[in-house]
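Audit log entry. Action: structure prediction of a protein-small molecule complex. Ligand: zinc ion. The ligand was supplied as SMILES and no pocket hint was given, so placement is left entirely to the predictor. Protonation state taken as written. Sequence taken verbatim from the request; no trimming, no tag removal. Recorded inputs:
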Amino acid sequence: MTQQPPDDTNRQLGECPHCGRDVPVGAFCGNCGASLTAPAGGGRLHSYAVSPGEHVARPAIISTLFPHLPQRHANVFREALGVGVLIVILLAALRLYTSALIASAVLLPLLYLLYLYEAEVYEEEPVAVLVATFVTGAALGTGYTLVTQHFAAVALSGNVRGPFITGVVQPVIAQLLMIAGPLLLYARGRFTETLDGLAFGITSALGFTLATVLAGYWHTFTAPLVGEGAVSADVVLRVLRAGILVAIVNACTSGTITAMLWQDRRGRAARRRAGSWRGRNAAIWVAFLTQIALGVISYYIGSLVGLVALWALAAVLLLVWLRILLHHALLDDATDIGVGPTSPCPECHYLVPTMNFCPACGVDRQAAPKQRRAAEGGTGMAPSHG
Ligand SMILES: [Zn+2]
Ligand SMILES: [Zn+2]
């Protein structure tokens, strides 16, 4: 389904006030992505580079963690996520606690694996990517849980596990393990895009979190499937936190680190803002300090409601932080590639010149599903050189 723009403005060229290039006249500069109509201009905070209809500072799960989905597919995933959460709550309300816990732990990883398949993030190497991210993350998560549980059992006699171990050491180790698999891919240098790094970090974190939940609650799986007594809101909250909130937090911190590592390797833009608040080092510090803060506060927090509120707040803030970083990283990634051949935009479906950004809707072509870009032979996705 392709449409012509209302007029033939995309054939006319005009100078972009932000990058100074002659670009097709439209709502956005196809070269640097700046808004040519809104006063916001170069930063275009009202229009997220992955999903131009959304504000950058919106705590949205799908358009942040699943950036390669075009709008229509994003809606399907959004509905699936909503239905999944309802099923988890329903199972918990029916006192099928084990099923509720498994459903909440599996929900996001399952959606993410479907997403990798849908967008073909792994290109021709699905097995290598899955092993380096999801499988490695899950294996390390299992090992991590078994070791920490072993030490917890040993420590029961003498309480050696203070806030420093549970609040600082364990979160730092967990975070390092979550990015270990993606670093193998980083070392190989086969995948070059910022959004590749993001997907690898998230996949690994979700595999790790799934394994820690399943291994950590294994003892409850051998208990009767249906719980005793009245349903307590406590159980619902506990299940939602363990399976979903922790997964979102881990996906965000790991995705931030790997996305910024990958973007940094692209060079130019990264060097320009090496010491900036949205440079690689700042992103890594924020990710680790957030995990430490959550670990320490969770150690001292007494109430379950407080704990869930803390993790929900962290998930929201991290989603917004990740979006801000991604948005600017994608704008920074753009290099001058000229005006390419006309092709349908994967987001708005107008026939537009293939450039870094769609001149009509402003979406970054890096955020298009990979197989579609390959089919178009578009130049917008080519890794930049020079
Ligand atoms: Zn421009
Ligand atoms: Zn478009």
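Audit: result stored. Residues 1-65+334-381 form one domain. The pocket of zinc ion (ligand 1) is lined by residues 16, 18-19, 21, 23, 29, 31-32, 34 (CB under 6 Å).
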